[in-house]
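Researcher: Go.
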Amino acid sequence: MLASLLEVERASERDRAVMPPSFVLTFATLLLFGPNVALLVAVAGTLTPAFATSRSLREVLVNLTVTVAATEAAALAHQHLLSFGMAPAWPWLALPLGAALVAYYLVQSALVELAVPLLTRQPLNRSWAKTAWRGWPLYVMGASVATAVAVLVDQRMYAVLPVVAASLAFGYRIYADYVERLEERRQSREVIDFIEQGMSVLDHDGCVTLWNEAAERLVGCARERVIGQPLEHAVPAVSRTELPRAIKETLGDGKARSVAHVSIPLPVGLRILEVKVIAVAHGVTLLWHDITERTNAEHELKRSGERLALAAEGANDGLWQWNLQTQEFYVSGRWRAMIGLSPEASTGRPQAWLERVHPHDVADLRQKLEAHLAGQSDVFQHEHRVRHEDGSYRRFLCRGVAVSARDGKRLRIAGSLTDTTEQAIAQERLRSVGFLDPLTGLYNRAVFVEGLGRRLEEFRLRRVSNSFAVLYLDLDRFKIVNDSLGHLVGDQLLIEASRRLESCLRPGDAIARLGGDEFAILLSGLNDDAQANAIAFRIQESLSLPFSIGGREVFTTASIGIAFGPAHYNNPDEVMRDADTAMYHAKSRGKARHEVFDEAMHARIRDRLSLENDLRRAIATNGFEVVYQPIVLLSTGMCVGFESLVRWTRNGEPVSPATFVPIAEELGLIEPLGTWVMEQACQTFADWQRRYPAAGLDCITVNVSSRQLVQQNFPRVVRDVVQRTGLKPADVRVEITETALLDSPGEAAGVLRELRNFGVKVYLDDFGTGYSSLSHLHKLPVDALKIDRSFVKSLMLPDRPAIVESILALARTLNTSVVAEGIEDDIQARALERLGCTHAQGFLFSRPLSTSKAEELVKARQPLGPKGATRTMNVA
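Model: Structure:
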């Protein structure tokens, strides 16, 4: 039982070739006391370690079964031979002893190496026979010792036993050391066989002394074929490599060497090994490492690299790779060439890329890159500007994909760089077709209004706090320049004016051409209203300087309306509307100035819009009235004709012609209104002439605006009206203002001449109030001049100017008649009569009359004014 606890005993369980000390005691007991006691001793020796150490039940049962079976077999063999009648004396005693030893050893080996693995479904030890043969001498020695002890005990040689015991103790120590060395060698072999790396040992003669299982698998050569053989004979393939020379050199100088590629042909294919040669005592150790996959991967990588290098050279894109661990930044030759550097691939730092990115694009680029590295996107993609070596910025599209380690940490990111500058320019040109004004290159109305809308939205979201202003500009007198100097000069003026307007703006401001000669400016980031006023003055000053166009100087100014935001505005159209309103207010107040929009303007515009709508409806429904003011002979006071005047009553309130006629001209409604008035007046006058032939009516005058006068086919309209109403052409007088002649004197002269040729007479109204008509008067076909009421009033002044006398003298020189307007008292009438004026009209004679009242006046055939009153007194 004590022997079963020895280290050698436990070593024998791991290696059955090692004889356990308990075998000596069991065998000696068998010889001394027979099989029963021997079996009892064997069982006790087997069970004792189970109680002294922690062992599994299966392990205890296996050991117990093996020990009992082997002991029983030895006992049967020993008793069987003794039963043949052999005397228990030498040399015959050796036969039963040998039979018992053989039976014990064979049963134990068969059970441990064959039966137990089969029952426990473990792999068989294919070298069990060698193991058994290796352990047989030890068991013979143990059986001999047991026999000697049994003889000593049997012969009662107790005096010798202490010596024998001491000898056995020393023998056991020597045996234990031997077993320990065997154990170490066994463990070494297990480790060597377990490692994946092949290992073999060669002596100084080059013969193999060690060949592990990994070497068998890697080289494809069994251990039995190699052990004791020269390596080149066992593995002929190595003779064609550098390995034999490396082994010889290492044996000579003791230095370790490595042979990179040792190719071994195998049935599964060519295997490539890396062999390291290390000098050891009495030879060398070879470490075989399979590098087939690595070599193939390197070859494939090399081929891939060659393909990629060829593709990179032939591709139009630049390639890059950023090692996030080492911060190395590789770029291809094409990448460098695209930004103007020498076309050689290089490795540097990522700053070589990031420092060239446009400052406005760096933040967004870093954000997109960090988002991809954080796993928020599958592919990194960003378009940005990169500084070229020549100093310019070109636009590039950068793409990349990051690679991660198993723990999710990003290792590197690689991708391509594509030059999109030309594409961006082409796209910008395509976009500019719809966004830019083709003449000036400024933004158009749509882009401006959209930008204004974004600014309003920023204020609503409280992204900005400063206010803004919209300037609405209209060039003054542009139509005159365009008509007189031609459209080419007009276009050049718009271009030059655009450049001057741009020079007046600050960074962040925006300008657009709205159409024609109208521009809009968005002033951003205003701290107070004075800044907008200052910029408006700056614009006026800039535009006031002469423009040199086509070898001549051209002058223009601008009327500017200003609307401040955000105020109460909900959309950009409201801002544009108010700025436009302020601009028209500036133009109506003398041009070349700017006005700031206020609510009073809005109210006026609202009233104006309402007035325009009512005017349109009135024209569509002929909701007007024609009234007639008598024209009298100053000498008799008799009515010889009428001036037809249009009147309009809106919502029960009369609207002055001075108010609605200019609006009708501006809206393009004066032509249908004028034609209707002419038809009504001519029809009524023709009816009076037919019904009252003795009334002495000579003429009906109709006021014609400058817009009507230049209307296409206006002479035909007059002819049609005259012929349709049955009047004689000489009965119709067309009144035009002096201002109408100033707008387009050449065209007006041609129209008036055509009317004169038809027989219609021409009256020049408000004569003397213009600026330059005297220079054109002798060229115009005018039949009568009408003296303006302002000059008639001057007749009452003590130091009155001699304007009326001058007009009458001019009329006599030109052989034209004269009609005085606005006569309100008898003194004026007598003064005009004394000066030679023949015809007059005014409140002294009659106010404008409705059709029925005027007809009563025609029917009465009575003098008007002072003449009529004198006649009434004489009759009375």
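Model: The radius of gyration is 64 Å.
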